[in-house]
Amino acid sequence: MEAENAAAGKIAPNKEAAVNEALTNALVALNRNRFKTYYAETKEEALALALELIPEGARAAVGGSVTLGEIGLLDELRSGKYDFIDRDVFSNQAERAAKIRESLQADVFFMSSNAVTEDGLLYNVDGSGGRVAALQYGPKSVIVIAGRNKIVPALQDAVLRVKTVAAPLNTKRLGCRTYCAEKGRCLSVDQGCGEQMTAGCASRTRICSKYSVEGMQYIPGRIKVILVDEDLGF
To answer: Which of 8, 31, 42, 142 is the most exposed place for a label (fewest CB within 10 A)?
Structure first.
């Protein structure tokens, strides 16, 4: 297994037996695609790894994520140890938009991923695009934390995962008036074209507008991926 232990900075063979096959496949393939990969057995270990990767005082930002809240990372970033651009604290939408733009200049950007494929891809879908913009360009380092529930065999499975799991749950959480929030699946699935990446409803509150597929990386190690052997987020 080619996932590194962040604290020790070396291969962690003692963890190999605990990793399920899909997670192992994803770690190896991501590493081959020049992501820097880490394995965490629990959400507590994932938090410890994440904090190892950000020095105190660093300018940090996050993309919208249930996972980051579940592992306790948001609380740590708000502790005062970091120069945290908190996108969730704002007086109006203009201020929030300014913070999201400012996030592109962060030292470290944290996010999760809507899906991770066993052949080494990250698949993400956004509404406004701030999260995928930071993933692709801007911050010096991007740290992606994803639970085992987000691992799928290939890209077409990632597309369907967003349409049947991630988007329905997130639109419901956010109070969006979309077909998927009501039905639990994308309109395109019921229309028989669910495999088409951008097909969906025409709601003004639709959160599926920007699509990102991260494959072989131009800058090795800029994107770090912590895969967690627990179910986290949507």
So the answer is: 8
